[in-house]
Every structure is written in structure tokens, then in C-alpha cells.
Amino acid sequence: MTTPLDALVTALHDAASYNAAAEAPPEAVVWCDANREFEPLLPTLRERLPELLTYGEFDSGTRTGPAVWLRAAVAGAVPAVNIPEGTTAILYLPGVARETLKGADDCPPLLQPLVWFTVAGTVFGHVNGKDWTLRGFLTSERGPLKLSIADDNATRAALSHAALRFCTRPVEELRGQRWSADQLNALLAPDLAADMLDWIDGAFTEMGDPARFAAFANIAEKQLKFDPRKLSPQDAVRRLAKRAGRWAEVWARFAASTGFENVVTYLGLEEPGTLFDRSENRDSYPRLNAQDEKKLREALLSLADLSPEAARKQLAGLDEEHAWRRETVWARRGEAPLAQALSFLVKVAAARPLPGHEGNALAEAYVAAGADVDWAAMRALAAAPRELDREAIAAALRAVYLPWMEQGAVALQELIRVGKVKLAAPSEPGPDATTILFVDGLRMDLARELVRRLEAEGVKVSLGWMWSGFPTVTATCKPMVSPVASLLNGPPTTSDVLPLSPEGKPATKPVLFKLMEADGWETGNALLPDVKLWAETGRFDEEGHALGARLAERLSAGIRDAADRILQLVRSGRSLRIVTDHGWLLMPDGLPHAALDVGLVEPNGKRTRCALVKAKAQTSYLQVPWTWNPEVSVATATGARSFYAGYEYAHGGVSPQECILPVLEVASDGAKRAVNVGQTRWEGLRLRVEVTGGADLRIDLRLGSETSGPSLIKGGRVLDERGRTSFLVSDEHEREAACLVVLDDDGRVLAHRTLTVGED
To answer: Cis ω on the peptide bond leading into residue 471 (within 30° of 0)?
Structure first.
């Protein structure tokens, strides 16, 4: 497509034409530009015209020099200047009018070496003998373009600033309208909101881009009633906070971003000037948000002095007061962590007690709703990583979460005491289990979140549950879910609650792996999907012991890593059974302490939530048979207490969180294909496409940047076995935005990419 710049290049070449039958070729084309109107085009013109030389201070890189140097260069006496054969040198003279050169007697001495070229060469200009102005070249009826541009000082100034942007657009796009200063300014600075924010932020300055700044200033003065040439960024921020008129558009752009740190700093210096500003635009002011966070922090800390019922009511009232802040720009920027955490705290506060009349009823209620309470508590902790805020979250959780957790643990312990719940015994995995993935410390709430993530990837997964063994520690419970559990047995006495192998060795990880391998199970990577495989992932328990309550901040990443490992196995053609050994309790500032005299406990027999009590010792703590030998009893801490003070993370005892374990079954045929648009290449109006994982899928090109636009290739195309295809697009859509979409058989979009028709 032709642009004004193309037309200018053609006109300069045409200026060097001559009648070979009657004329000698011109030695040079002299291009005078008294007002320097064409200067913004020079960098681009130099790339296209190697024969273009410029009058001015010597600069070999831009082929610029004084008149004597230009004369020598045209004569071929400057080795660094190579004028291509068959072309005529073009001498661009900024700030010089042709009248200056033609008046030889009055011509300044420094220009006199160029006077010869007005005779031996040709002068580029209008047919009326005058030099071209930029507007004249673009609009002249006797010129090549005949565009319509207003003739006033503001438009001339705007054209000068927008010259390069204007002259590189297709002529067809420029015709059919009259260009004014406003339109030209918008061409150079089309996004007022972004430019205003960049200017306030310091990323856009008058010194850095004078032409764009001039256009921006003119638009801002008209549309925002604000002149950045006269007012400061702080003045702009004051208007931004009030959001009157079109400043609302600038605020919307700021609110949708996470950058502009200097804008935030300026806003931090502002306070609402009127009662209206304080009520209507309260979310404009970070200082007010900080005050609200402080007020909420104090309110949460005060929950420590309330009963659980009063604390629940207080949280509900606080949520009514602060919920709106979760939708503000400060929440999106992480400056309202307590308001975010509050949404999870009210879910914890609304938790219902677990039923205590029957074991399965308690377990089903915990799986259906109770685990979500645990997850809400974890998310509340993760939402406020600063120590100052964590103290407030800890106070709230101790007020409403700890009593609920205590009630569930006491209820389950009583059911075990009266024989209504029997914890699991070792069993074989079943003949259908060929791949078992062990995830260490995968509590039920984590498992439910893992299911949500897998289903979002198109994986078919079902979530079930089982009772754990006892005590709920890795030594006892991991061997139980291994495929060789039936080969193990418990000794008559134990200090480490580890079962023994048939050879009498403690069932540590190496011993378990050796037994599994002898039974036909791979314990590393199995290439064939029908080979039995035991795999492991997850560090929830390890990190819990190391981090305490700060484990909450790591859970999301750990679930993501587990999902990645599952997807890897599923996409290799495997169906999975996902198991774990035990859950855990977590309470910031430590679980309540359960006193246990050291003299009552076997040597090395005391853990955070369980203890091996001496045979003749008297204790009120519930004692539960050891899974591997019911003749050995292990005491459990009452409720949600710990035998060691100050522990935030603990397991080994009896509670729904520790004892109700997830079991996930994952089908091998349910995962989405990993589909990505790879290479796209335009060859004229033919688009060649390669889609990773796209074999036999369908592809379409749709008009516009949305995936739902009208098709440009009716019916689409089917990708070959390599995920490749190509197709032609009508030239009527050249340079228009289009969205390339990859579709499955049901028409669902699996991948997409926005393109410009005909342009890479």
C-alpha cells in the first residue's frame, strides 16, 4: 500500500529524471526546506535513500556535512560516501530556501559551493517554482497525494509533530477526511489515559519525546481541561482522585493496572477535600485504605477477648463494613490484605459443628463442608503474610477456628472411645491399582483444591475418603497405603511405631521400596503405562514441620506442583490412585498444651499429638490400639491439643483433619491436550500455521481481536498430523486485526492468538 512517505521518495526520484535526447543528467537534486518541516522524516528517508546527503554539522553516520564536503561527496571524492550507481545524489538543505542559493551575490559564503547545483542539477519543489512545505506536498492539487489538511497554525504545528506517524500510514486511510489539529494530535498520542499516567509516573517527558508530548498536551488541555506544560503531576493526581469528567477514564486505566508506582506515591499525598470525596471516591486515597486496614487490624486483635459466639458476630459485622474494599485498586495491589483475609474468616466463623452421633456421618460432613473450613483458614493466613497482619489473623482464628477444630476432634475421639469408629487396618491395594501416587501430608482440604485444579485441566477425577491408621504419623500410616502393606507386621513392642518387613527390618523407605520392587512395582520412572508404578510427590508435611503456620503461604504452590506431576502421569497414559498417610492440625501461635508427665511415657515415646504410655501408667488420655499390633496402645492428646507447647503444626493424634484421608481416582483419558499456537507466518495474504499438539483439530481465523468474531475462512481448516495448515485471506481485510482460534470437535476454543492480516 502507498504511504505519503512512499510518494515523497518517488517524487524525489522523479525530480532527477531528464530527457536524455536533449539534456545532460542532473548532478544532484537540491531539496530546500527553509522551515525544516521534513526533518522528522529524515531518519526513515536515510534508510530508503542511500543517495540522500544532508547539509549541516559533519556527521558521517547520517551522511551530513558542510557545503564543501557535500560538493566533494557528489563528485565521488569522499570514500565514506557511496552513491549507488544509477542514482542521483539528493542534497537536503534544512533551514535554507532556494532564493538564498539562487541569489549568488547575497548567498552566504558557507553555502556558495552549492550554488553550482542549482544550475547543474535540479531543484525539488512545486511546479510554481516554490519549495515544498510539508502541508503543501501533502495537499497540493498538482501534487501526488491531494489530501485534505486544515490550514491554521495549530494544525501546522500538529502536522510537524505527527509528521512521521502521518506519513507512514496508508494513503487510502488518510483520504476521505479533513485532518485538523485534534485528529493529528490523536494520531501521535492516541491513548490519552495511558499518556497521562505515564507522564505523572515520569516515564513520559517533554524532553524524551517533544513531538508526542506536544500532541498529548494539546489533547489533555482540550479533553481534561489540564495543561501539563503549566501544571505539575501532583496537580494531575488531585484531579485523578476526584475522577470528574474524562478523568474517570484515566482512573479506570490506573485501577486496571498494577504499575505506576509514582502515581501511587502522589496519591498517597492526597486527602479528600470534601465530604463528597470522602464518601463517593474513598477508594481513590491509599491513606484512607491504610487507615481502614489499621482499624480492621485492631478489631481482629480484639477478638481474642471475646467468646466464640461474640467473635462470630463481630466478624460478620466487620465484613459488612470492609467487604467493599476487596474490589478496590488497593486490594488488587495487595494493600488490603486484612480485607481479603476477612472474606475467609467469615467462612470459618460460619462453620457448623460436625455431627457426633455416628462416624460415617461425621466423616461425610467433614468431606462435604468441613474441609472447606480448613481451607478458608489456610487462605486467611496466606492472605496476610506480614507479621503485623498475621497477629491479627491469628487472633481471629484462635477465636473461631480453634473452638470448631476442638469440637470436631473431641467428637471423633468420643466415637472411637465408645467403639463407633474403628480406624483403618492394613489391606492390599486391589487388582485394579497399577499406578499409585503417594502425596505426603495431602490433607482433605488440599485434596479438594487439587481436584478443582485437575478438573480445570479437563481431568476426570473422583474424590473418596478412608480412615487413617493410628497413630497418624508417617512411620505407621505410609506403609499402610503402600501396595505391600499385607507383607508387613507389627512387633510386640515399639518406640518408633514402624511395622516390620518379613525379614524383621523396620519398614523405612528403602525397605518399603525394596519390597515393592520385589513384588513387581517400579519405584522410579516407568516408561510403559501398563507397568505397575509407585510414585511420590509433595512436601506438605516436611514444610509444615519446618515452617509452622507459614505453611499456609506454600500450600497453593505445593498443590500446583502435585497437579503438574499428576498431569504428567495421566498424559503418559496412566490411570492413578492418589493416596496419603495422614493429615495435620495447624494453629498460629501454637496449639493448646496438653500436660503429660515425662515419667508416664516410654523412652522416646512422646510426640506432639501422641505418646507411648508405659504399661502400668495411669492417664486420662484416650488410648487407641496401634494399627500394626492392637496389643500396643498409643495415647492421643485430647481435642486439638499438643503434648508439646508452642507447636503451630502437628499430627499423630485423632481429629477429622488427621484421620479422614482423601483417596483420588484419576482416569487416564480425561486430560486436555496441551495445545499451543506455535509458528504463524504470512506469505502475502497466505497464513501458514503450526500448532503444537494440534493434530486433527480444527482452526479458524476470525475478524477482530475476540475469539467470537465472524470467520474469515468459512468452515475453518483441519490441521494435519503435524498440526499444520495454510490458507488465503481476502485482501479486503489486509492490516485488520484477526483472532486465530484452535477448536476441538465440540467447537470449544483450546488456544488462540491475535494477528494482523498480512503482517508478521
So the answer is: yes
Question: What is the side-by-side order of every strand in the sheet holding 724-728?
Answer: 676-683, 686-692, 724-728
Q: Which helix (H) or strand (E) holds 516?
A: helix 509-518
Cα 73 to chain center, whole Å? 55
Read off the C-alpha cell for 398.
484462635
CB atoms inside a 10 Å sphere around CB 591: 28
What is the predicted pLDDT for the residue at 1? 52
Name 435's bridge partners. Answer: 533
Cell numbers given for 47: 534508510
pLDDT of 674 higher than 90: no
Q: Which long-range contacts (CB under 8 A, 24 or more apart) does 488-494 make?
A: 488/426, 488/628, 489/628, 489/629, 490/626, 490/627, 490/628, 490/629, 490/632, 491/628, 491/629, 492/629, 492/631, 492/632, 493/632, 494/612, 494/626, 494/628, 494/629, 494/632
Q: Is 701 inside a domain boundary?
A: yes
- d(Cα 265, Cα 246) in Å, to the nearest integer? 22
Give yes or no for residue 528 having a pLDDT over 80.
no
**369 and 479 both lie in a single domain:** no
- 713 vs 719: CA distance, rounded Å: 14
Distance CA 152, CA 132 (A): 17
Residue 214: alpha-carbon gap to chain centroid: 34
Q: CB under 8 Å to 377, separation ≥6 — which residues?
A: 344, 348, 397, 401, 586
Residue type, 167: C
Q: Which domain holds residue 445?
A: 427-671
Residue 4 banded pLDDT, cuts 50, 70, 90:
very high
Q: Which residue has the higher pLDDT, 266 or 157?
A: 266
pLDDT in tens, 12-62: 999 999 887 788 899 999 999 999 999 999 999 999 999 999 999 999 999
Residues 271 and 373 in one domain: no
C-alpha cell at 357: 452421633
Cα–Cα distances in angstroms (integers) from residue 531 to residues 433, 439, 520, in the given order: 11, 20, 8
CB count within 10 Å of CB 11 equals 16
Residue 679 phi/psi, 5-degree rounding, is -80, 135
Q: How far apart are CA 161 and CA 105, in angstroms?
A: 36
**547 vs 549: CA distance, rounded Å:** 6
Average the pLDDT over 650-677 and give the result: 87
* Number of domains forming the structure of the chain: 5
What is the average per-residue pLDDT within 516-523?
A: 92
Residue 165 has pLDDT above 90, yes or no: no
Q: What is the pLDDT of residue 607?
A: 92
The grid coordinates of residue 444 equal 482433605
CA angle 640, 641, 644 (to 5 degrees): 145
- Which three cell numbers, joined as nine digits, stand for 122? 535540479
Question: Which residues lie below 8 Å from residue 691, measured CB to CB, with a gap of 6+?
Answer: 675, 676, 677, 678, 697, 699, 719, 723, 724, 742, 751
Closest by CA to 681, choosing from 589, 758, 578, 570, is 758
Question: At what angle are helices 308-322 and 337-349 packed, to 10 degrees?
Answer: 140
Q: Are 682 and 498 spatial neighbours (Cβ–Cβ below 8 Å)?
A: no
pLDDT digits (tens, 9 = 90+) for 230-273: 999 999 999 999 999 999 999 998 998 888 999 999 999 998 87
Please choose, from the candidates 256, 258, 186, the residue with its C-alpha nearest in 3D space to the C-alpha of residue 222.
Answer: 186
- Domain end among 254, 284, 314: 284
Other CB atoms within a 10 A radius of the CB of residue 29 amount to 24
Q: Which of 388, 418, 448 is the last residue of a domain?
A: 418
Are 511 and 580 contained in the same domain? yes
Q: What is the DSSP letter of 706?
A: S
566/639 same-domain check: yes
| Residue 508 CB contacts under 8 Å (≥ 6 apart), including other chains | 498
